[in-house]
Amino acid sequence: MPAQRPRPQRDLADLPYAHRLEPFAGEPAREGDYEAVHFDGCDFEELDGGSALFAESAFSSVTFTGGRYRRARFDDVWTHQVRWVGVDLAETGWTDCESGAGLLAGVELFGAQLRRVTFHHCKFDSVNLRAAALRDVTFVDCLLRNVDFGEAELTRVSFPGTTLDRVRFDHVKADRADLSEATALGIASGLEAMRGVTISSLQLVELAPALAGIVGLRVREG
């Protein structure tokens, strides 16, 4: 039985810390500490925000182009229409976050830690999530194109309404991951490593030729 569909993303005013948010002026800095701030309509290019901490904060219509934010932490952060283009987010930590209508293109997220994170209507294009650890993460009505989950840990990760296009799962470690509600399973590689993943009966039929090839079955027509 498929997992219960997650609730829609909250509006900014619905956040329990919304009344404490202060407008942010300036640029995120390396090892900066940002709590209860609202980044709104900002455009950040080629910044170094490594090891920064963002807590109980919000990002609206923000664009990050290039730059390094390695080992930054995002705790209880809400984002809407945020664009990450060519950004290094490797080894970052994300806890109790939600993102809506966002874009991640050419982003490095290898070794990242995502826990209790929900993405709504987001587009992932050429995103590197190798060796990342995802726990209780949900991709709702998203598009994942050329996303690499190689050697990642997927624990209670689900993809309701999401399209997968040329996604790689090589050597993934899955525990109660659920692809059964994905709208398309374009898996480029790694089917042999998907023990612990739930799919629907219809998806099984669609994947049957690839699975037969993996186990060495030859299918003769007629």
Helices and strands in order:
Layout: E1 22-23, E2 33-35, E3 37-40, E4 43-45, E5 53-55, E6 58-60, E7 63-65, E8 73-75, E9 78-80, E10 83-85, E11 93-100, E12 103-105, E13 113-120, E14 123-125, E15 133-140, E16 143-145, E17 153-155, E18 163-168, E19 173-175, E20 177-178, E21 184-189, E22 197-198, H1 201-215
Parallel strand pairs: 1-3, 2-5, 3-6, 4-7, 5-8, 6-9, 7-10, 8-11, 9-11, 10-12, 11-13, 12-14, 13-15, 14-16, 15-17, 16-18, 17-19, 18-21, 20-22
Total domains, how many? 1
The unreliable regions are none
* CA distance, first residue to last residue: 34 Å
For the biggest sheet, the summary is:
12 strands, parallel
CATH class: Mainly Beta
How much strand content do the residues show? 35-45%
Alpha carbon gyration radius: 18 Å
**Shape designation:** elongated
Treating each run of at least 4 consecutive H or I residues as one helix, how many helices? 1
Beta strands, count = 22
CATH architecture classification name: 3 Solenoid
> N-to-C SSE series?
EEEEEEEEEEEEEEEEEEEEEEH
The third-level CATH topology is Pectate Lyase C-like
**Overall mean confidence score, pLDDT:** 93
Structural class: mainly beta
- Percent helix range: under 10%
Structure report:
The protein is mostly beta strands and 222 residues long. The chain has a single domain, classed as 3 Solenoid (Pectate Lyase C-like), CATH 2.160.20. The chain is 7% helix and 38% strand. The strands form three sheets. Strands 1, 2, 3, 5, 6, 8, 9, 11, 13, 15, 17 and 19 form a twelve-stranded parallel beta sheet that branches. The longest helix has 15 residues. The protein starts with 21 loop residues before the first strand and ends in a 7-residue tail after the last helix. The mean pLDDT is 93.
